[in-house]
Amino acid sequence: MAGPLRAALALGLLAAARPAPAAGQRRQAELFLEKYGYFSGPGAGTHSQAEFTEALRDFQRVTHLPLSGVLDAPTLHQMALPRCGTDDGDSRAAGTRRGSSGGRWPKRHLTYRVVNWPPYLPQHEVRLAVRAAFELWSNVSSLLFWEAREGPADIRLTFFHGDHNDGLNNAFDGPGGALAHAFFPRRGEAHFDSAERWSLHSGKGRNLFIVVAHEVGHTLGLQHSPVKSALMSPYYKKLSKDFVLSWDDVLAVQNLYGKPSKGSAIQLPGKVFTHFQDWNTDLYGRDRQQRSLSTYYCHSFFDAITADGDHNLYIFKGSHYWVVTASGNASDPRPLQPRWPGLPPGIDACAWSQLTGKFYFFKGGRCWRYAGSELEAGFPRKCSALGFPRHPDTALYFQQLRRLVLFKGPKYFVVGEEPLGVEPYYPRSLRDWAGLPPGTAGALTHRDASVYFFRDHQYWKFDQAKLRVVATGKWATQLAWMGCWDANSEQVLS
Ligand SMILES: *[C@@H]1O[C@H](CO)[C@@H](O)[C@H](O)[C@H]1NC(C)=O
Ligand SMILES: *[C@@H]1O[C@H](CO)[C@@H](O)[C@H](O)[C@H]1NC(C)=O
Fold first, then answer.
1. How many independent structural domains does the chain possess?
2. What does the pLDDT read at residue 42?
3. Is residue 49 part of a domain?
4. Are 327 and 474 members of one domain?
5. Has residue 144 been placed in a domain?
6. Of the bound ligands, which one is closest to the alpha carbon of residue 264?
7. d(CA 214, CA 180)
8. 311 alpha carbon to ligand 2 midpoint, in Å?
9. Number of helices and strands in the chain (H, E)
10. Counting CB atoms within 10 angstroms of each CB, which of 19, 198, 269, 371 has the fewest?
């Protein structure tokens, strides 16, 4: 026990300290508050301390934080969360009834059109998700929507990269930050960041269905809601057992357009909307005859990755996984179910232990352990009760410590297998892993003895002797052993 733990502490001691957080936080916060409409005048960059404090307080009120009026850690954290890029307008004014000042359509029958498509997601499924997003609103109001496949439409949904002529303030910023924005009636435009990690299931990435549903709300005239559970609250939320629309959303849309003409409002739990993904029909479908199933994971991001003792890679996405052999040969996608019976889709993290030869899976607060295809007795366990982080970003078996390591945001946890539990002195700061960014999707120890971390299209190579990142790049095109032979030659779907 003492040996590995000393090694564990040494990892921390050896790691180079990183510089303090970047200066200019106050300026960043000011720009943020300007973008989201917390200052009354335009006056870019010329706000007094009193105006700044007042704007901060407004922001803290809208986001249910303590009204300190100070740029403290919870406020900075809140500002960094993924959200809608439309400003917070009237939701700032406490007590004002929302819904009317966004304007409204003078008619009840509206057409919509998806002008272009996000890269990597099957068109057919995006179309189903968009249809369901409109249906959410028509099911609780008198509105009716039709999809126009071409030509003009009242509401147009478009994916854009970076600056797209809505003003520099509204330029998209890649993964995280502003995910999308939309305009009030009767402009009929909703814009989505095409560089975001869109998904249609409950695993990693941003669920496109829920973001489309939110932006459609704006195109109908709804402003941001100060009600925390509302779909129209500015911050991204995950699908859950709750209805997607809260009472506040339903009242707001009925306030503008009235109740459904026949029957009563119909609502379904959010969880129902995680099944637009349908590999078999779509991947071979007419949208993409050229693409091979085996390298589908090469064109997108994945939920988790690990490697076994024979250097086979396991890559997980939604309800499927791929095996890439040591020779770089990728399998077709295989369903998680018979291989790991009882494992849910969209796992957060996975690691294969070199010590015990077992597979560990993590999702939410739970964990699963399999010897071969057999779920071990007592699993799934509530691992969060053992002090494990909920929704870990990445799991890794780390040879130097002969322990599992779980990464979550700015921290990591070292975990013993027998008995299963977090070692003392953890969590520690991610700074011990010099050069590693937070929020990686997965990691593995390669046969060259380096640890590779993955996030989106990027990889980071961590040298176990130097205890720092020594290289980074694009995994699909630069790491031949990821099995993406055709990643260079195939056209990205657009
Ligand atoms: C809308 O209501 C219909 C039943 O009339 C239901 O089948 C459908 O799933 C509902 N859609 C949404 C998005 O709630
Ligand atoms: C990849 O797999 C195919 C079919 O199983 C086999 O024919 C081929 O030789 C393999 N390639 C390599 C490089 O192992």
1. 2
2. 59
3. no
4. yes
5. yes
6. 1
7. 9
8. 16
9. 10, 26
10. 19
